[in-house]
Amino acid sequence: MRKITLLLAAVAFSIIGAYAQQAKYVFYFIGDGMGVNQVQGTELYRGELEGKIGITPILFTQFPYATVATTFSATNGVTDSAAAGTALATGNKTKNGAIGVLKDLETPVNSIAVWAKNAGYRVGVATSVSVDHATPAAFYAHAGSRSSYYNIGKDLYEAGFDFYAGSDFLDPTDKGKSESLYDLAEKNGYTIARGYKDYMKKCKKAEKMILFQPEAASQIDRSSIPYAIDRKKTDLSLQDITRSAINFLTKDQDKGFFLMVEGGKIDWACHANDAATTFHEVMDMDEAVKVAYEFYSQHPDETLIVITADHETGGFVLGTGPYKLNLQVLKNQKVSESGFTAIVNKLRQKTKNQVSWEAIRQALKENFGFWDQVQLNDKQEARLKAVYEKSFKGEGVQLEKSEYTQDEPIAGEAKRILDEIALIGWTSGDHSAGYVPVFAIGAGAELFQGRIDNTEVPEKIAKAAGFNHE
């Protein structure tokens, strides 16, 4: 009798454990390029702003489960975003550059978003860059090349998820050769909203939704929403996107949902080796996580939130020799490197390219704090002056190129000097093979323990939610 009682108790315990682990609402945040040092650097920066040596935590680092993941692809020790996105989405390694296919570049593999849809969940895929970029595309598309933007856009409709969000489509007409992806939206039952206010006007009547930034913003740059450090009140934010997604995916209260949200511009800032902008992007993704956490607080037994990254970008180093940091100096940077390029371009236009050193000096003072809050030594000032002479008095401008931007040389030099003063460094302008962090809270979060590989992340989420891997 005692054995039977113990057996029944064990069975009951396993049933309760399985039930408690089931996630009805799943949030999957991916910080593109967000390695361990990008996260810790952000927290150390916040600590210095409060006048202390140590960290002031952001929200998601305080989640009860935390580990690290490896990121190599099927063909490379250092992955790109397409292969890493495919691993995080489908649980399969693939060749760098491939989206939602195996390394033969032909065999399609379905993502956890498809598994969720097949399980009856409502599904959303959102990002701060274009909706057809590598990471979001890995959740709905199948392409041998991540640059097949038009076909990836068509796959978005083929997948038929409930909610998509991003800055825009990168190639909406196949370079003028094919039917517009905007026209295909209506044909496939999607409503396109431009900005958060427009979303609020259209969401109630929409059956399926695509949220883009306002048209005026896309005319300036359709590839991404503005950096957090450059944002204006009228700009769409990742927080707006996350709030809209939750609002739309909960229209049917009987269904659960799966939502992937990418902080895509952490990677862009790291490609540009722009530390201040990077920290602002990490904090901005944390603001989006806070929106998800508000929802979790209302549904703690049914919600899972997982945060990770596809890879580390830049080989970011906290400390360049002296046993100290000076991160607080970065508070004096008011715009991104690209934002300062735009300021310099306006000066060029205003003066018909006859920009004085005094005007550049004033712009540097206002946007980097130089000669005011940040004192430069003779060598640093000489470097800025030399770049000015070459860019404005020489034969022509040699723009500084990173993965996604081309910037004014004076913007690049100012950023480098401020990073040097902050005592931080970068080993490259590209990806590295460094560990990426993983944080989790909620139903099934206990699955995220011990070092894991990126392919295990979707598998563990699927286990927590009860998704069939097909």
Looking at this protein, list some descriptive labels.
single chain; 470 residues; alpha/beta; ten-stranded mixed β-sheet; two-stranded antiparallel ribbon; 17 helices; 41% helix; 14% strand; disordered N terminus
Descriptive notes:
The chain has 17 helices and 16 strands. With 470 residues, it is an alpha/beta fold. A 10-stranded mixed sheet has the order 5-6-4-3-7-1-8-15-2-16, with helices on both faces. Strands 9-14 form a two-stranded antiparallel sheet. Strand 5, helix 8 (196-202) and strand 6 form a beta-alpha-beta unit. The protein starts with a helix and ends in a 5-residue tail after the last helix. Mean pLDDT is 94; it is low at 1-19.
| Rg, nearest Å | 23 Å
- Gap between N and C termini, in Å? 43 Å
In total, the number of strands is: 16
- Give the overall average pLDDT: 94
Helix content: 40-55%
- Largest sheet features: 10 strands, mixed
Strand content: 5-15%
Shape type: globular
Structural class: alpha/beta
How are strands sequenced across the largest beta sheet? 5-6-4-3-7-1-8-15-2-16
The number of helical segments is 17
Residue ranges: pLDDT <50 for 5 or more in a row? Answer: 1-19
